[in-house]
Amino acid sequence: MSSALAFPATRARALGGSALGARPLGARSKRPVIASSRPALRVARAATDAVVDKAAHNEEQAALRDEMVSGCTECTMPFEAERASALANAALADHSRASAIARDADESDDGTSKMSLRALVVGAETGKLARALLQKGATHVLVLDHSRLMLDRAAEQFDGTSSSTMGNDSGARFLRADVCDVPAYQGPFDAVVFNDSLATQADPAEALRRAVLLTRPGARVVVSERESVEADEAESSTRLDVDALVADLPLQSTLDSPRLGKTMRRSDDDRGDSPRDESSDVHESSFVDLSCGSVTHTYEVPPLFKLRDAVAMSAPVVEGFGRGSRLMGVPTANLDVDVVAEALEGMRRGVYFGFARLPDDFKHGRWCKCVVNVGARPTFADGEGVTVEVHALRDFGRDFYGERMDVVVLGFLRPEMRFDGLQALVARIMADIGLARGALDDRACRERVDESVGFQVSDE
Ligand code: ADP
Ligand code: RBF
Ligand code: MG
């Protein structure tokens, strides 16, 4: 089997959004505000943007990429193995879960690890990246592309078994799909790599946002965009501003500045099909110019972490915005912010987990798990002023406005972000609840609660 692919030298340009007649990048920044007849339901941004016909855009992409693959006779993309290795490294090197898996494998009797490390690759290319990710410790790699031929060629990198791997079996899987349509159950992912594919998405900002929602805390999000060989000033000016696209997302950059592919490490060992371990002893001086340079941005979804000091709050429950979050299954008891002002000092805006109780309620006096949002609700046009909202993971069977609620905040889940409407927000809150339950079930966390807060947590 030959892995040779001939990509035209002008590939990046040929696939560029503007070259396709699609809306120029950045044209969606001014989004209309939907004003509903119920002011409380006003959403800060429109849920859809009709400017782009996504299906047509994706078909066009598929046709272009199909044509590209069928026209291949020889590889004109040098340093592909190095690039795959470098990207896999950015996605997985020093990944906390990868280390945990290594520990888990060491400790397990039969040497097999039960933990999984899932990666999502958007843009199949030749399949080298998927292979590099598996070699660097990923247990599952899901590769997406719009082009069936591109996926088939990438799958050729693998033997028949791995390319046809289904469901939860480890290995690489290849799916013809848009990243925005990947269902949550395919994840959560520990790493997402946009493999020179973000600029060709119908809506790059939306693609990034949806990808982030498929990740778990601590995940890496890597965006690598190739620069075409003859990149000129005009092309540079339409280059995606990836940092601007992620500004609203719960991501933090792992590097001060984007790493230029031009300085990617090269050694003769890297030229073959088997990417080598980047952590080996090659010195910086061995970096060379790559003729197919990429700009790579690496971000991290903040890890779920426990607070050094638990934050205790006790305040009456007040009326909130009456947004009907109860109807959506997520009622939030709004605490009187004046009463908890002191505790709020030093707490960053975001979503937390901990325990809550109604101390004066005979039946519901026991502590139960909860998620807490400390924030300004940027999803909604009323987004001013910080509120503290507690969703207790218990059915009280009644309202308790005016009653005192005790809350002990133990850990931080994620920063607050802006969603395209209540539904998307509630979907994410469900994921937050799952993560909170997991963290609060953790024995070490419960022991710490008993010690530091001085209460026994009840098992509901
Ligand atoms: P509001 O906008 O007034 O805060 P919500 O729709 O958020 O209204 O509903 C919150 C109210 O629902 C709380 O103040 C409380 O009285 C009630 N409630 C019932 N069950 C729960 C629960 N499990 N967690 C939080 N609040 C609950
Ligand atoms: N509002 C946001 O605008 N962005 C968020 O990221 C966000 N995260 C939340 C997470 C949890 C667990 C909860 C309970 C609420 C969150 N909210 C968030 C607040 C939400 O907008 C608010 O509860 C409803 O608008 C009702 O006031
Ligand atoms: Mg509320």
Overview features:
binds magnesium ion, 27% helix, alpha+beta, binds riboflavin
Beta-strand residue percentage: 15-25%
Continuous helix count: 13
State the order of secondary-structure elements, H for helix, E for strand. HHHHEHEHHEEHEHHEEEEEHEEEEHH
Distinct small molecules bound, one entry per kind? adenosine-5'-diphosphate, riboflavin, magnesium ion
**Helix-and-strand structural type:** alpha+beta
Major sheet characteristics: 8 strands, mixed
The level of helicity is 25-40%
Query: What oligomeric state best describes the polypeptide chains here?
Result: single chain
Low-confidence stretches: 1-51, 161-165, 256-292
Radius of gyration: 24 Å
| SS elements, strand count | 14
- Give the overall silhouette: elongated
Instruction: Please report the distance between the alpha carbons of the first and last residues.
Output: 57 Å
Compute the average pLDDT.
Answer: 74
